[in-house]
Amino acid sequence: AQKITQTQPGMFVQEKEAVTLDCTYDTSDPSYGLFWYKQPSSGEMIFLIYQGSYDQQNATEGRYSLNFQKARKSANLVISASQLGDSAMYFCAMRESTGGFKTIFGAGTRLFVKA
Amino acid sequence: GAVVSQHPSWVICKSGTSVKIECRSLDFQATTMFWYRQFPKQSLMLMATSNEGSKATYEQGVEKDKFLINHASLTLSTLTVTSAHPEDSSFYICSAGISGANVLTFGAGSRLTVL
Fold it and tell me: Which of A29, A62, A84, B81 is deepest in the core (most CB within 10 A)?
């Protein structure tokens, strides 16, 4: 069964610094996708970045990058140059190829950006 | 881009009544939609997969008679919470996938409060 683990309930980062949010996963499916979503206090789910299991390079989207270590089954999110608006909940998620679009989420990490 | 509209955003009802939440894909057709439930400060828990023209697939532990899902068209899925009780109070979020794309698109969510 697929599983997503986020072990950091909360993280603090100073504005303009970089922060890494941890995510590990477990699956027996060789083909899968990994996602990070941001959820501000309004509740909406904002897609940040995607990494496919067969992608050779780590995904990057602006200030977001995904540190994908397949052998370790980790997919950490790196946010560079943190901004106050980055304060939110961050969820790591995974979708197996055999499940269609079915996506499961980790417990989430609340990020606090300090001025 | 793909937009998923969810209505209502907020709903308050009395215990014992039923509440319907609508999820619409505005500019694309969604053969599959997903319904998630999120308790305060917790992760998104997948409740069911809504399949157009067929019965929904419920996750283990989700009462299908309590949470009725109907996916009558390619752009509309509804979740009806029947005989709602205070413990059903939660944030309900729907999502849809676009064929050929990797990412789920989420609605803005519906916050249900049962008095």
Answer: B81
Mind listing the pLDDT tens digit for each residue in B78-100? 999 999 999 999 999 999 987 66
| Chain A touched by B44 (CB under 8 Å) | yes
Q: How far apart, in whole angstroms, are the C-alpha atoms of residue A34 and residue A51?
A: 5
* B96-108 pLDDT per residue, tens: 987 667 788 899 9
User: Which chain A residues touch B if contact means CB-CB below 8 Å?
Assistant: 33, 35, 37, 42-45, 47, 50, 52, 91, 95, 100-108
Q: Nearest-CA distance from A34 to chain B in Å? A: 10
Could you tell me which chain A residue has the CA closest to the CA of B42?
A107
Q: What are phi and psi of A88, to 5 degrees?
A: 180, 180
Q: Distance of CA A100 to CAs A64, A103, B30, Å? A: 26, 9, 12
Instruction: Give per-residue pLDDT as tens, A14-55.
Output: 999 999 999 999 998 899 999 999 999 999 999 999 999 999
